[in-house]
Each structure stands twice: as structure tokens, then as C-alpha cells.
Specification:
Layout: H1 2-13, E1 25-28, E2 31-34, E3 41-48, H2 51-63, E4 68-73, H3 86-97, E5 103-107, H4 119-127
């Protein structure tokens, strides 16, 4: 963990992203890196600390007819108190500055309870350039993923 903190702090100083460790998903300027799905280009940017979550959300967005501007995976430990969400914040800022991104979606497990409520979603909401901005959190049921084989209108959270 100490190496991750050191690398990510250096990246912040140099205005770079460190995607990981434990990050297998990214699509940057239309180029898939690692385990990325073939999805259409569009106006929705994702940043997440869950590679599997990023893959699921990107596929759902594509299936519903929209596309992705960028998909930035930051690694599962990024929201740990020791790392402090350094790359999640940097990813949000990158998406906020990206002219092709109109909507920002955050994908992660909940941050530590000590972190200010809404600190992530407020920046993403201010940066989103859609006519209406909202954020939502849907808690996952451990061991019971939401099925993506049914349309969202037919799906019940936590069931197959």
C-alpha cells in the first residue's frame, strides 16, 4: 500500500494518472486497455474503483444506445483512507476538462464513512454538462449481482 500511495502522490504532482493496482479496465480516447469491452463512443465518462463495475456499467450504457467518452479505472484501493482517493479525484477532474464528456458517472464501493457526504458526487455534478444532473447509488447485494440480461425496467436490484 505504501508504494501505491507514493506513486499516486507523484502522479498528482506530475498531472498523471496511475490506473491501479488491481485495475484491469480503461478506455482512453476510444482505445481499450486491459479488460475493456467493445462499446460505442459517446458523451458519458466513467471513473471507477471497480473494474468489474466499470465493465458492467459501460456495457449497460452501450446496450441502452449511448456511448462512452472515457472509462478510467483507478484501482480498488484508491478509496482507502491511506490513498485518499487521489486518482478518483484526478479522474473526475480529467473528465470535467474533457470536451467530449457531457455526463460523469462514478462507479465504486462506498467511500469510508469519515469522508464528507457528497464530496465526490458534488464535483462530478458540477462538471457534468447535461441539462439535468443527478447522482444515484445502488447498494450491491453481496454475492447476488444485478443481472444485465434483462432490460433495466424489468430488473429488480439484487435478483437474477
Amino acid at each position: 500500500m505504501a508504494d501505491e500511495v507514493e506513486l499516486k502522490r507523484l502522479a498528482v504532482k506530475k498531472n498523471l494518472l496511475v490506473m491501479g493496482p488491481d485495475c484491469g479496465t480503461a478506455i482512453l480516447d476510444g482505445v481499450p486497455l486491459g479488460f475493456a469491452n467493445a462499446v460505442r463512443r459517446g458523451r458519458i465518462g466513467l471513473v471507477g474503483a471497480s473494474g468489474t463495475g466499470l465493465q458492467e456499467v459501460s456495457c449497460l450504457i452501450d446496450r441502452l444506445g449511448e456511448g462512452l467518452s472515457q472509462v478510467i479505472g483507478v484501482g480498488g484501493h484508491d478509496l482507502d483512507d491511506r490513498v485518499g482517493g487521489l486518482m478518483m479525484r484526478a479522474g473526475i477532474e480529467r473528465l470535467a476538462d474533457d470536451p467530449g464528456t457531457r455526463v460523469i458517472v462514478l462507479v465504486s464501493k462506498p467511500p469510508p464513512p469519515r469522508w464528507p457526504a457528497g464530496s465526490w458526487t458534488s464535483r462530478a455534478s458540477r462538471a457534468s454538462r447535461s441539462s439535468s444532473t443527478s447522482s444515484a447509488a445502488i447498494p450491491a447485494s453481496p454475492g447476488r449481482p444485478v443481472s444485465s440480461s434483462e432490460p433495466p425496467s424489468k430488473r429488480r436490484h439484487g435478483t437474477r
